[in-house]
Design brief:
11 helices
């Protein structure tokens, strides 16, 4: 779901209301010089639970409380390098490094700030690929503050929706869980504020990378401490995945990117709609609600004059 090419789920709509965002992924290239090596990195601390970090500490001959310290350093202090874990013995830090472990934080390649304070980041991953994430700050009249992180789930996207620059740029690979989580930490670093909301509406289709999305969701909720209800997962619809998502019984919002009130028009905008008709999506959404008791929201991007007001009203009848 490429942000700003998909407007919007209710949380994101609230987050960006009254804003005129001028940032566009067209202004940034999708990659530097990607390596072709398959990028599967299991020796990354970011994304691990406290229990897993305790087990890792035991495996390396330490006491389990070292795992709690690791958890604190990674998620609370947000330390990026193992050698900067100054609370830990030097020998433990060396053992982690010699075992091939790393924290899993990447550098920020570029940051663009819009006049309204929205910040778009390009994060340079370990294999040189670039991924976008957006931070959207909103101050409310009564003094409350909301910071929404719009995160990517893939580098590029294979679905090629007609209006989407990310889709046109092609697809490179799925993101791993830590590469999703680190986007939220990068937004916190830039804003020096806690992220309050997360929307999976950046580059890529989250349902095509459901395993990492679910793992990142767990970490964002349990380790980074963002409430499940503050997280929205957005999709254009991938067959058999809404049911699977429902089986996790997350207390998060599912957002469907509709973009058209009927199947015929939708197929011209969202090519993947051919294999997942609207009536099947609607049935799966009803089942999702029954299974999770969580509402489903619908997003609709108005594209030129291709749809009349009357047709738009038909969305309500779906
Ligand atoms: S599914 Fe992919 S191609 Fe379609 S709008 Fe989202 S990011 Fe773009």
């Amino acid at each position: 779901m490429a942000l700003l090419q998909h407007l919007c789920s209710a949380p994101l709509t609230r987050a960006i209301r009254s804003r005129s965002l001028t940032l566009s992924s067209r202004t940034m290239s999708a990659t530097l010089t990607p390596t072709r090596v398959a990028h599967v990195d299991s020796h990354v601390l970011l994304g691990m639970s406290e229990q897993e970090l305790q087990q890792l500490s035991l495996d390396l001959g330490q006491q389990s409380y070292r795992g709690k310290q690791l958890h604190h350093l990674i998620y609370k202090r947000k330390v990026k390098e193992i050698q900067d874990f100054s609370q830990l013995p030097q020998a433990f830090r060396n053992d982690l490094q010699e075992g091939g472990w790393r924290v899993g934080r990447s550098s920020i390649h570029q940051a663009v700030t819009a006049a309204d304070g929205t910040v778009k980041l390009l994060i340079k991953l370990a294999d040189n690929r670039l991924v976008e994430t957006v931070g959207i700050p909103v101050e409310h009249d009564k003094g409350s503050f909301r910071l929404t992180a719009c995160v990517s789930s893939q580098v590029g996207c294979p679905l090629r929706c007609s209006f989407c620059a990310t889709g046109k740029g092609g697809y490179s690979r799925n993101l791993q869980r830590h590469e999703i989580v680190e986007q939220v930490l990068a937004i916190e670093e830039i804003f020096k504020q806690r992220v309050t909301n997360v929307v999976f509406m950046g580059m890529g289709e989250p349902m095509l990378n459901l395993k990492s999305v679910i793992e990142a969701h767990r970490c964002l909720n349990k380790d980074v401490q963002i409430g499940q209800r503050m997280i929205t997962i957005s999709t254009v619809g991938v067959p058999n995945t809404i049911k699977k998502l429902a089986s996790y019984k997350l207390q998060s919002t599912l957002a469907i990117s509709l973009h058209a009130p009927n199947q015929k028009l939708r197929e011209t905008i969202v090519p993947s709609a051919k294999s997942y008709p609207l009536d099947a999506i609607m049935k799966d959404c009803r089942d999702y609600f029954l299974e999770t008791s969580r509402r489903v929201s619908f997003e609709y991007t108005l594209l030129g004059t291709e749809v009349s007001f009357g047709e738009l009203c038909l969305c309500g009848a779906l």
